[in-house]
């Protein structure tokens, strides 16, 4: 389903690198949580004893991850709500933290203010688990939330922290991808003019790392799309056309959301690629 509204975020000239905001349907819950809300950090179980054996991850977590990666944020919002409400026991703290993190990341893409509560709740649960995968994803979620609030330096710090938990984990490429996006945003000033060329170079290097190391088509596609946008900034038509073509092929192959597919198409059209 095509999102009700789509607008480029942050950098108009480089906005094709997956930076889209849209309104999720049926979002009627306010940003603040009630005292009994399972997403509240106070209810979420900060300090859950790490000695408590955790139940196996529910299958819904893999579904949430796949939906988030392909850009189906509305589905993540819808399906995470009952999962978060169900995972309340001490043996379910790991699954709860992961589901809260995916929920926060999806909400951050449409209404960042709504992502604050689940992002903080996920971090609170992670602190008591001593689980590197959980800690990494919850810092990624906090970083995405801050990035969508345009706190790019704060977001970069969260992604840096996430990568301290390992580069071989399932979500390390996401942390690297989003860290590159914060560098890209910091390279430009409020008037969309380049103010820090070193950050642009660093962003390109991080995106290239994602292309080399990620095994996921859409994640690689987002990095290639960003490299196409950077090539546009550098006046490199061949780079724009090559990267945009690769990104589009990966998006099509992996059935990415339609709004993601628009990015490389627009870049190619703007560069008059054949």
Mean pLDDT: 86
Evaluate the radius of gyration. 18 Å
Class derived from helix and strand content: mainly alpha
Number of strands: 2
Low-confidence stretches: 1-36, 41-49
Order of strands, main sheet, comes to 1-2
Distance between the termini: 29 Å
Q: Note the beta-strand portion.
A: under 5%
Major sheet summary line:
2 strands, antiparallel
Shape: globular
Please tally the helical runs, counting DSSP H or I stretches of 4 or more residues: 12
> What share of the residues lie within helices?
55-70%
Query: Which series of helices and strands comes N to C?
Result: EEHHHHHHHHHHHH
What does this structure look like?
A two-stranded antiparallel ribbon has the order 1-2. Helices cover 62% and strands 1% of the residues. The chain starts with 6 loop residues before the first strand and ends with a helix. The protein is an all-alpha fold and 274 residues long. Residues 1-36 and 41-49 have low confidence and may be disordered.
Summed up:
With 274 residues, this protein is an all-alpha fold. It has helices at 41-44, 60-70, 73-86, 93-108, 112-127, 132-148, 152-163, 172-186, 197-213, 217-233, 237-253, 258-270, and strands at 7-8, 20-21.
How are the secondary structure elements laid out?
Elements: E1 7-8, E2 20-21, H1 41-44, H2 60-70, H3 73-86, H4 93-108, H5 112-127, H6 132-148, H7 152-163, H8 172-186, H9 197-213, H10 217-233, H11 237-253, H12 258-270
Antiparallel strand pairs: 1-2
């Amino acid at each position: 389903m095509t999102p009700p509204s789509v607008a480029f975020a942050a950098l108009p000239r480089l906005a094709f690198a997956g930076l889209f905001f849209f309104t999720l349907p049926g979002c009627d819950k306010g940003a603040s949580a009630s005292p009994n809300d399972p997403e509240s950090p106070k209810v979420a179980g900060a300090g859950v004893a790490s000695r408590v054996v955790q139940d196996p991850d529910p299958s819904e977590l893999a579904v949430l991850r796949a939906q988030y990666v392909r850009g189906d944020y509305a589905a993540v919002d819808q399906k995470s709500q009952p999962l978060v409400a169900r995972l309340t026991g001490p043996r379910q703290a790991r699954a709860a933290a992961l589901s809260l993190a995916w929920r926060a990341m999806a909400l951050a893409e449409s209404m960042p203010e709504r992502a604050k509560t689940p992002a903080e709740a996920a971090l609170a649960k992670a602190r008591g688990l001593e689980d590197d995968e959980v800690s990494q994803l919850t810092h990624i979620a906090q970083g995405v939330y801050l990035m969508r609030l345009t706190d790019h330096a704060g977001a970069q710090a969260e992604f840096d922290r996430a990568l301290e938990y390992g580069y071989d984990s399932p979500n390390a490429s996401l942390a690297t991808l989003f860290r590159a996006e914060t560098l890209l945003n910091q390279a430009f000033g409020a008037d969309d003019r380049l103010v820090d060329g070193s950050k642009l170079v660093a962003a390109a290097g991080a995106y290239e790392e994602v292309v080399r190391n990620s095994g996921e088509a859409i994640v690689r596609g987002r990095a290639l799309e960003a490299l196409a946008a950077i090539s546009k900034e550098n006046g490199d038509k061949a780079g724009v056309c090559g990267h945009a073509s690769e990104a589009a092929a990966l998006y099509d192959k992996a059935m990415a959301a339609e709004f993601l597919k628009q990015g490389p198409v627009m870049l190619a059209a703007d560069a008059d690629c054949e």
